[in-house]
Amino acid sequence: MDWLFAAGGPAAGGNGTRLVLEHLVRRAGPGAVDAEVRRLVAAALEPLASQPGTVWASLDWEHVSPVLVVRHVPRYLQLPAAPLSPEGVWAVDEQADELASLFAGGPNLTLQLPVSRPPEPEVRVPSVPGAEDLRGAQLMGSVATTLARAAETGTTTSEAAASAGASAAAGALATYRRRHGSSPVTAGDVAMAFAEFYNDAGADFFPVQTGDGRVALVNRSCPFGRGISGQPGLCNLTTALLGTLAAQVGGSAEVVLDEAIADGDARCRAVVSFAQSGSPWARRYDWPPEAASPPGGARADGFRVAMSLQLPRDSLSVSVLRHLVAHVLEEVGAVQEDRADVELAVSEAAANVIQHSGAGDAYDVVVSVGPRTAELRVVDIGRGFDHVLLSDAVAGPDEERGRGLALMHALVDQVRFSSEPERGTVVRLVKHLRFDDASPARRLMGPAHLGTTRA
After folding, report:
1. How sure is the predictor about 15, in pLDDT bands with cuts at 50, 70 and 90?
2. What is the pLDDT of residue 7?
3. Could you tell me the pLDDT band of residue 171, with boundaries at 50, 70 and 90?
4. How confident is residue 292, by pLDDT bands cut at 50, 70 and 90?
5. Residues of the chain with CATH 3.30.565.10
6. d(CA 444, CA 299)
7. Which ranges in the chain are annotated with CATH 3.90.1520.10?
8. In angstroms, rounded to a whole number, what is the distance separating the alpha carbons of residues 163 and 155?
């Protein structure tokens, strides 16, 4: 979320603080935004708002904890012409690239806010045949038909919306080919194909940030109209359409929808990336997709247990993390040997973040356990560390130190790092689990998954 403040007025900083806090509450809930968070936001914005010039406040929540960046522009610098609202606040849209260039290298205040939000719910995206002759103007009719049949097929509103979006991607791809005489290749092409098709259905999407294999788009008009308010499940139409379209071009893609009109935001903001972003809020799409369960059958993903933690960057927190992860795995019936492997691997991941990352007060851990696997993400929002060099420095079998990475690879099935300077490091661990089917929580995962233990 982005705002420009007309500095110099006594109300500007207060209005800016209010809007930032309202956005945090919409994402995390009132209980997560405490007095300390309110004090930090006010301290960052209100003093600058009284100085001559303009303030640009940007809230990035693609990672576990939100990062607030505040930039001050002296009066003598020229800003792109744009109207200010009566409250002295303006949402940045078309001028995003110009503003980024204007502020490049300039002083700014970067603040990681101690706020956590619940994990995104799992949504099954059924594998359905795409209609290449579907036009954008016909999309909402197709969506209405899919939603009307949701009860008959045993799917939820969220799943029905995702199904409609995934099937519409073929139509968006065909529309792009007709209009441009070629297939989309880059992330920018995908963004254009998505916007042209979806905007024909009543949306108003356009790209605001374009990078290497990554595009951020914003939307000022929802094709569902005012009825979208309080219905975030319908947003799965947007994410599945964009994600499936990008996956058809790049083989796989991730989509983060970090602002939504359905949740009360002034706009929607979607980020699509061909690479793994490490964001715990990202929805991943692969092409071709995995086969879906038959209508009315058991869910493909089943019941999942998710836990989000924020821990102090102190070595003592590792034992606390290990105990909590062990408790979750025991409750869902994972066998003791697999529990021990995951406990040790996540301990090593957390220890690496504590030891090698820069200064900071906390790190985040997201744990998700499904009917077949456990996925854990250890996230440090800071300067990050060079995991490539760390991998090259793996110790030999006779050395006592530096064996953490080798242990992680030996204990779990997948170990992936994502690290960028000033954006932090994400360590992702995936472990295929064996279960005791007699566990009550295991039975909640559905009868289709019982009898799949490897013990």
Report:
1. confident
2. 67
3. very high
4. very low
5. 305-449
6. 12
7. 136-286
8. 10
DSSP 32: G
Q: Kindly report, residue by residue over 348-365, the tens digit of the pLDDT.
A: 988 888 876 655 678 888
Can you state the percent helix, strand and coil of the chain, rounding each to 5? 40, 20, 40
The DSSP 8-state label assigned to residue 46 in this structure reads H
* Average of per-residue pLDDT values in the chain: 77
Give the pLDDT score at 243: 93
Please report how the helices 157-180 and 187-199 are oriented relative to each other, as an axis angle in degrees rounded to 10. 110
The Cα–Cα gap between 272 and 255 comes to 5
- Residue 241 structure tokens: 């359409």
**Is 51 strand, coil or helix?**
coil
Q: Which CATH architecture has domain 305-449?
A: 2-Layer Sandwich (3.30)
Burial tier of 137 (Cβ tally within 10 Å: 0-12, 13-18, 19+): exposed
* Peptide bond connecting 288 to the previous residue in cis, omega within 30 degrees of 0: yes
pLDDT(263) > 70: yes
Q: Are strands 214-219 and 67-73 parallel, antiparallel or unpaired?
A: unpaired
Assign domain 136-286 to its CATH architecture. Answer: Alpha-Beta Complex (3.90)
- Residue closest to 55 by CA, chosen among 105, 106, 93: 106
Please check whether residue 201 is in contact with residue 219, taking contact to mean a CB–CB distance below 8 angstroms: no
CA angle, corner 119, sides to 295 and 299, nearest 5?
A: 15
Reported as a pLDDT band with limits 50, 70 and 90, residue 425 is confident
SS (H, E, C) the chain: CEEEEECCCCCHHHHHHHHHHHHHHHHHCHHHCCHHHHHHHHHHHHHHHCCCCEEEEEEECCCCCCEEEEEEECCCCCCCCCCCCCCCEECCCCCHHHHHHHHCCCCEEEEECCCCCCCCCCCCCCCCCCCCCCCHHHHHHHHHHHHHCHHHHCCCHHHHHHHHHHHHHHHHHHHHHHHHCCCCCCHHHHHHHHHHHHHCCCCCEEEEEEECCEEEEEECCCCCHHHHCCCHHHHHHHHHHHHHHHHHHHCEEEEEEEECHHHCCCCEEEEEECCCCCCCCCEEEECCCCCCCCCCCCCCCCCCEEEEEEEECCCHHHHHHHHHHHHHHHHCCECHHHHHHHHHHHHHHHHHHHHHCCCCCEEEEEEEECCCEEEEEEEECCCCCCHHHHHHCCCCCCCCCCCHHHHHHHHCCEEEEEEECCCEEEEEEEEECCECCCCHHHHCCCHHHCCCCCC
Beta carbons within 10 angstroms of residue 380's beta carbon:
27
